[in-house]
């Protein structure tokens, strides 16, 4: 690894400290280097707070003059909730800037780099551009599509089952896979499940890791049949619970759930169920950038049928049930040519389980 790659890696590590905490802004990290030593580091900790560049400049103080700046995302050049970072970089006397990846946001989109170069500061895109792009993959999709990036997480047997024929499902995967799911919850803005999952498992849907934060919990419940004594509504948690139903909601049921602490959102109908595109638009409007869909089979099927899954994470446990529900009830196809296809990104062993990371291919042509 070159020195430049090492410093950009440090900036990526800084950015990762804020995963799930900056929405609707992206996670960004920055490092200032002078004569081969790090003199300042920083990351964007929360929306409305100082950007990574400003935090690193403040950390470096006068040492920033003549230093090289490594930042995972192109510095902004506009006045938002905070001043433009390009101007702060110029004022601080930074010598050179290494940008991990250009900003896909049309508000920035090259302007930050152009401003720095116009002020006589050399800018180099990279190193580790691909890794910096991956860091903001969900946010980039959010900016371009106007809806949250959707990750579907599945725990299934080798033969694709999520429970036995009697409904027993604990546990298909091992401790390491479940720990990874908790870390993923810590990094997303919301978790989505259906009422069936709540009734069958009575989950908390929290990120049970040291220093973790709990995402917004979204329950798909067309008719508001969820019990008000579910753990989601009674167990202590910093997370809020949103119940999405098909409007108009039955007033007595809605009032009962609101009294239990839930937020009830009336959505448009899609085949008698919650219109997922409508719900995602609602979540985007409140700053939700990434969501994690955790089931069950009808929910996975509905998201896949609607073409709303961006990333698919399937944890295969080393067991075979030989029956029981499959992990999705997406509509069956008659021809191989009509099947939804995916692009495999990677596969790895997580403890004793196999994790497959894939991206659905929407253009079937």
From TrEMBL:
Q: Which organism is it from?
A: Vulgatibacter incomptus
Protein name as it appears in the record: Riboflavin biosynthesis protein RibD
Q: Where is the signal peptide?
A: none
Q: Which residues form a coiled coil?
A: none
Its required cofactor(s), as named, are: Zn(2+)
Q: Report whether Acetylation shows up as a keyword of the record.
A: no
- Keywords assigned by UniProt, alphabetized: Hydrolase, Metal-binding, Multifunctional enzyme, NADP, Oxidoreductase, Riboflavin biosynthesis, Zinc
Q: Where does Zn(2+) bind?
A: 51, 76, 85
Biological processes annotated in GO: riboflavin biosynthetic process
On whether Ubl conjugation is a keyword of this UniProt record, the answer is no
Q: Which family does it belong to?
A: In the C-terminal section; belongs to the HTP reductase family.
Q: Where is the active site?
A: 53
Sites where the protein binds NADP(+): 155, 169, 171, 197, 201, 222, 296-302
Reactions catalysed: 5-amino-6-(5-phospho-D-ribitylamino)uracil + NADP(+) = 5-amino-6-(5-phospho-D-ribosylamino)uracil + NADPH + H(+); 2,5-diamino-6-hydroxy-4-(5-phosphoribosylamino)-pyrimidine + H2O + H(+) = 5-amino-6-(5-phospho-D-ribosylamino)uracil + NH4(+)
Which SUPFAM superfamilies does the record match to this protein?
Cytidine deaminase-like (SSF53927), Dihydrofolate reductase-like (SSF53597)
Q: What is the lineage of its organism?
A: Bacteria, Pseudomonadati, Myxococcota, Myxococcia, Myxococcales
